[in-house]
Amino acid sequence: MSDDVKKVCAREALKWIKSGTVIGLGGGSTISYLIQYIKEDADLRVKVVTPSVKTRLLCIEQGLEVLYTSAVDQISVAFDGCDEVDESLNALKSGGGIHTKEKLIASMAEDYILLVDETKVVNRLTFKHPVVLEILEDSLAYVQKKVAALGGKPVIRVSGAKDGFTVTENGNLLLDVYFEQVEDIASLESELQQIRGVVDTSLFVQVATKALVAGEGGVRLIAS
Ligand code: 5RP
């Protein structure tokens, strides 16, 4: 997504925010633009919860109040990016490895709105990106066996450090699971969730309530 398209998308997102509310902000560059626009709007006063360290630091830098998510039980609207979303609002996130907290914030929000461009929208999820599982370290071999039985190819995510595994803020491991073909997205999500040791998956089945899709001709809305 070009920076100009991201900005158009972020500007449109601003229209969905009511002053005086708690909002959720995920990660990514479109969210960074949205933070800037919130800051610039003198009439808009909001408090923020976020799963992303980068977003938290950016909000603080811009003078936005960031609350502990643990002290909040309701969010009016949350915005996030994703890697792929379909026309039924099923989405796949893969990059940041913070999907467990992202999904929590999404569930707490009355509205969970994905900010994307047309290149990320598909009729049906293609799974060219892996499904990411956050897993307890002790469950590694067990979860690898279970996902292989479901047709997935699990690859443990490594950090830059030699032989180092990526460890999440929650102290867990990340397993990138590649699927060639997925017949039933909802069943796959449910089966993955049921594997003991899996904390959460980056497959967001009917979690988003809307997507703002930016393209050359402007922004269109996909709504549930
Ligand atoms: C990764 C994500 C990110 O939120 C998403 O990739 C951000 O995209 P962009 O920088 O284009 O706004 O979900 O899984």
UniProtKB/TrEMBL annotation:
Keywords: Isomerase. Pfam families: Rib_5-P_isom_A (PF06026). The keyword Hydrolase does not apply. Its EC number is 5.3.1.6. CDD domains: RPI_A. One of its GO terms (biological process) is pentose-phosphate shunt, non-oxidative branch. InterPro entries: NagB/RpiA_transferase-like, Ribose5P_isomerase_type_A. This is Ribose 5-phosphate isomerase A. It comes from Paenibacillus sabinae T27. The lineage of its organism: Bacteria, Bacillati, Bacillota, Bacilli, Bacillales.
